[in-house]
Specification:
single chain; alpha/beta; 8 helices; 32% helix
């Protein structure tokens, strides 16, 4: 049976009227200040917290923060860790913060770390995939980006690259949730005036590599690290995860730059998107955060061993 979203007319893309109706339905459900900013305020050496912009919807409420080493080492490779591209994917944000609070200092003398724990703070508060304009930031890492969240991060990376920062690795922390099928994919179909085609939510962790630069050993190292914390998503009956062929256990590939995905923003040699499954009966929020930390650690360790 065809399932229609509650906003819009089936088969017709949303106009500004429908987007406004969708926006009015979004309600603040948690606090960016309490859950993110206050944790950043507790960070000390060897890191410093800086703003790299703010969201136009409320600049005072939604400053954008990046954390980096107080004294980056010239000639040392850079590593970017991003979370909260999609605001509803909680462990992306909290996992990045937990990484900063726990194991990140042990990497400070080996790599110049840049961590952006919550790229989409409005989305974090309303627990949604999109930004206030009903745009998906993770399809918007393109020139002249229509999403200010994406444009701000692009500007940050370009400024550092202009200062001769060379990124070796970028790990972008995400989740795949049951709400993808219940809310976000139906909303996307309605927004674009297309029929909703039901999919399957994979039960477990997986990664998304780059079709143009897959780095299978890097992806395998991340899977091995996370496997110590939580279970890995199996392929479905077609040998796929979310409609893409599984290339090895727990790994699929997307064309990152072609799709405007965040993991393609640096052009780093080692890139991945992590996907935690928080709706499993076998995990807790803490396990999800620990899975993200395990992914970052395993990815950094592999990249640094093969940096030459």
């Amino acid at each position: 049976m065809q399932r229609y979203y509650s906003i819009g007319t089936p088969g017709e893309p949303w106009t500004d009227t429908e987007k406004a109706a969708w926006f009015e339905r979004c309600k603040i459900q948690r606090s960016y200040k309490d859950e993110v900013i206050r944790k950043l305020d507790r960070l000390g050496a060897p890191f410093q917290v800086e703003t790299y912009g703010a969201l136009g919807i409320d600049p005072q409420r939604y400053p954008l923060f990046a954390v980096q080493c107080e004294a980056p080492v010239c000639g040392q490779p850079w590593a970017l860790v991003t979370g909260g591209i999609h605001g509803y994917e909680t462990s992306g944000v909290q996992g990045a913060l937990a990484f900063l609070e726990t194991v990140a200092p042990s990497y400070a003398d080996r790599v110049n770390l840049l961590v952006v724990p919550c790229v989409s703070p409005w989305g974090y508060e309303v627990i949604h995939r999109w930004n206030p304009s009903a745009i998906d930031p993770n399809r918007s890492f393109v020139p002249d980006s229509p999403a200010e969240e994406s444009a701000a991060l692009i500007g940050l990376v370009q400024a550092l690259s202009g200062d001769s920062a060379e990124f070796l690795v970028h790990i972008d922390l995400h989740e795949t949730t049951d709400s993808d099928e219940q809310e976000f994919r139906p909303a996307l179909a309605a927004r674009d005036g297309k029929p909703f085609e039901p999919g399957h939510v994979p039960d477990g962790f997986y990664t998304v590599g780059d079709t143009e630069n897959p780095q299978p050993d890097f992806q395998a190292a991340i899977i091995a690290g996370v496997q110590q914390v939580t279970h890995i998503a199996p392929a479905d009956a077609k040998g796929q995860i979310i409609g893409s062929d599984v290339t090895q256990t727990g790994v699929i590939n997307y064309p990152l730059r072609e799709l405007g995905l965040c993991a393609g923003v640096t052009g780093a040699r080692f890139t991945t998107t992590t996907e935690v499954y928080p709706d499993s009966a076998d995990v807790t929020p803490e396990i999800c955060n620990q899975a993200q930390i395990a992914a970052v650690r395993a990815g950094l360790d592999h990249a640094l061993r093969h940096a030459g």
